[in-house]
Amino acid sequence: MIKSKDTAITYLIADLHLCENRPDISACFLRFLENDAVKAEKLYILGDLFEAWVGDDDDNPYLKTIADALTKLSQTGTKIYYIHGNRDFLLGKTYAKKSSMTLLPEVETIDLYGRHVVIMHGDTLCTRDIDYQVFRKKSRSWWWQTAVKSLPLFVRKKMAANYRKRSAAATAIKSQDIMDVTDSEVTACLEQYQSQLLIHGHTHRPAVHEIIANGKSAQRIVLGDWYEQGAWLKVTPDAIELLNQPLNQ
């Protein structure tokens, strides 16, 4: 039954990195859907909902549990939108349909109660991480994705596991500066879309940054990750709040 929304609320989340071996994150996410997102008009997931994605043909029951929970939320009237992250960019139309999510392009502009806002995962802003940007360009190409998807599922799972290990090792030796956004890219993005507010994830550094774009004051809001707590951005006509909650609460 579709509910009546008493209050205008929109939530934005990113970087949950859901996986079976972190049941605490999964449980926190499911509680968020049942207790908070259920009150919202819209939920935007800005990438890395999952720790890894090897293809929509993965029949792991865990993935069905998440899809069912999102569909249940959608059936109450909350619209769900999804932008790909750097971990789950292979998530396709089949799983999105199972989850009742609407797929969005990697950069989208939305109206948040009168605010013209740019939303994205955020990895394209980190231009100083040259090695990652080279891989990103390759992995988003049609030929690379076609080749990977043609491999047996068990091979793709091994590839994903190996990539996560290599990525963790590379991240450990990269400076924090390299892995953060490039300020000029942020400004260029806001000016391209004629906006004063950018919301993204990826860097795992939740904060509200005051900047200048289009010749006037602007903001860049970074969403938090879910490794140590649940984290979300709550937007109403009157306020924008970065919130978090202990995983076991």
From TrEMBL:
Q: What class of enzyme is it?
A: hydrolase
One of the record's GO molecular function terms:
manganese ion binding
Q: Which SUPFAM superfamilies match?
A: Metallo-dependent phosphatases
Pathway of action = Glycolipid biosynthesis; lipid IV(A) biosynthesis; lipid IV(A) from (3R)-3-hydroxytetradecanoyl-[acyl-carrier-protein] and UDP-N-acetyl-alpha-D-glucosamine: step 4/6
A single Pfam family, by name? Metallophos
Q: Which GO terms describe its biological process?
A: lipid A biosynthetic process
* Localisation per UniProt entry: Cell inner membrane
One Gene Ontology term, aspect cellular component: cytoplasm
**Family (UniProt):** Belongs to the LpxH family.
Cross-referenced HAMAP family, in alphabetical order? LpxH
In its UniProt entry, what is this protein called? UDP-2,3-diacylglucosamine hydrolase
